[in-house]
Amino acid sequence: MADNNKKGKSKIGSIIRNLVLILAVGIFCYSGYQLITIYMEYKEGSDEYQDLEKYVDVAANSANAETEKQTPEDKKDPDVPEETEINMEETNVDEFGTVIIGDLVDSEELEDTKQEGSEAQVSLNEKETTQSAESSDATEKSKKEKEATPVIEEKEDGSVKILGKIGKVKKRVDFEELKKINPEIIGWLYVEAIDEINYPIVQTDDNVYYLSHTFKKTDNIAGSIFLDCDTKPNFTEANSVIYGHNMKNGSMFGKLNQFYDEETYEKSKYFWIYTEDLYYKYEIFSCTEVGAISESYQRQFETKWEFEDYLKRMQENSIIKTDTELTSADKIVTLSTCTASSDVRFVVQGKLVRAYQVVDPDKTKKNTEK
Most buried by CB count within 10 Å: which residue of 7, 30, 116, 279? Predict the structure, then answer.
């Protein structure tokens, strides 16, 4: 009888062990399947965005600037005829290290300001009156912060006007082809210090869709780099917010947190946003961790003083110290990504320092041939 009980217990124990083993193997196989699935999804997302890079050439904007400056014999663009209205042979580098075509020109020089007859005449008395008024106002203005001039402003028709100096740069992004893939593209982002952050920017009517859909609108955990749905797509607002996932394989905004390290900032403090007609260059002034609901995401401000205080706080809270001068006239962009904590975000903020007009050599060549 005792032997039978022992055999029974041994049989039950064996069954339990087999069940546990089967369960463990099942969990292992399922986990392996999940890992393979995640890996394949990561790869599909990365492959898609790498394929899109064939429509972009950003290197010459900064990395080759010094080389082009030192080798003037290589400046000539063989694809552009000499008869173009813009001398493509004249390649310069501005104070931000950007290769430009020709010379920087004051925007006012490009506008027709000529007047004829009596409209062009201003009497001496009128000039004296104006000068007197300006002198009087100068005393009052000296007590306040000097009014700054924005780099760009929005026109009534929604287009963008460049203020101050205008530089012309060669076309780097083929928006015509990219729009065929996704008409919701509104720009292209490139971070100089982190070459891997080189992606199209999209925008739709919500901030949910592109969290799980790629540029080609494929369902994928990589999502897209996208502009806040309530922000103007021309980047003329005080603060334009751009979101991207912190992917474990380093894609999307997965390497944005390299700005925790000051060496990354010292490598280059600029990032670019390319649009179809204008290229915008931004200087980073703040990198920091913030709450998921934070004032960093505030886009509109009632007064210039409110915006000035905001900019001051953002710069003071930065993990790395910057000396960028900030004014109420600035236009900034906030790059935002998630962190290991669901309640914390990492943001990098930059101010617009210059806007450039885009020159398409192919179109210029066609127009010249006509």
Answer: 279
Cβ neighbours around 107 below 10 Å, total:
15
Cα distance between residue 274 and residue 185, in whole Å: 11
Q: How far apart are CA 99 and CA 155, in angstroms?
A: 27
Residue whose C-alpha is closest to residue 257's, from 191, 332, 314: 191
In the chain, the amino acid numbered 147 is E
Exposed, middle or buried: residue 157 (CB in 10 Å: 0-12, 13-18, 19+)?
Answer: exposed
- Asked if residues 168 and 357 have their Cβ atoms less than 8 Å apart, the reply is yes
pTM for the whole structure:
0.77
Q: Which of 47-51, 84-88, 260-264, 282-286 comes out lowest in average pLDDT? A: 84-88
Dig out the tokens for 300 from the structure.
């509109």
CA of residue 96 relative to chain centroid, distance: 17
CB 287 within 8 A of CB 215: no
Give the three-state DSSP class for 303: coil
- For tokens 């929005």, the residue is 154
pLDDT digits (tens, 9 = 90+) for 185-234: 999 999 999 999 999 999 999 999 999 999 999 999 999 999 999 999 99
With beta carbons less than 8 A apart as the criterion, state whether 328 and 148 touch. Answer: yes
Q: Report CA torsion sign: 292, 296, 297, 300.
A: positive
Question: Token pair 């890996």 is at which residue?
Answer: 39
**List of residues 6+ apart from 126 with CB closer than 8 A:** none
